[in-house]
Design a protein that fits this description.
The chain is mainly α. It is built from nine helices and no strands.
């Protein structure tokens, strides 16, 4: 079945393509926090993650005239996000500071940076108990090669199918399976003494 018939987000993007700005606003509202969180998992820097997410939406906006509903909208926007993140890392090629997502984020002046609410947020007790584990996992994820990290994050955190990940990364499904397998193996090794 064609995505424009089954995916309401594709219909919103097609409305935007036809000049309806409200379609873009609705998509932005729905995907804004998802894009920031996706980018944050790669750079561990809230401000940079917000900039990268903004770049994703800028590319979506500019691509409206060329948009074709060949897949689900989420597959398409995450492919853009993957490309934006990879381009940023190729450009900077530096190690990013790993920062807990459970602690308040402060800017250079010590002011608290606005955080984004997660509807699935755990209780304070659960967050405190899992802080150390989460930091270990984030450090282990940061050590993965870029393509492995992207494939693993898309599969584990965003629950995309292998086929969707292959489309987002513009690689074969077999390559995605290999990347995820190797990424999981490396994570097991990195976390062996901890988990």
């Amino acid at each position: 079945m064609l995505p424009e018939r089954t995916d309401p987000d594709v219909r919103l993007m097609l409305r935007f393509k036809d000049g309806d700005e409200d379609g873009f606003r609705k998509l932005f509202s729905k995907y804004q926090n998802q894009m920031i969180n996706f980018c944050f998992r790669f750079c561990s820097d809230r401000v940079l993650a917000e900039d990268l997410a903004q770049e994703v939406f800028l590319r979506v906006y500019r691509a409206a005239g060329r948009y074709r509903p060949d897949a689900r909208f989420s597959t398409w926007i995450y492919r853009i996000a993957v490309n934006v993140c990879l381009n940023e890392f190729r450009k900077l090629k530096k190690n990013y500071l790993t920062q807990s997502m459970n602690r308040p984020v402060e800017d250079a002046h010590g002011s608290r940076v606005t955080e984004y609410q997660d509807e699935n947020q755990s209780s304070a007790h659960e967050m405190l108990a899992s802080r150390q584990r989460d930091e270990q996992i984030k450090r282990a994820l940061q050590k993965l090669p870029d393509q492995q990290r992207i494939a693993v994050v898309l599969r584990i955190y965003n629950e995309f199918s292998y086929d969707e990940i292959a489309r987002q990364m513009a690689v074969s499904e077999g390559k995605v399976k290999t990347l995820i397998f190797r990424g999981r193996q490396q994570l097991k090794q990195s976390l062996a003494g901890y988990l």
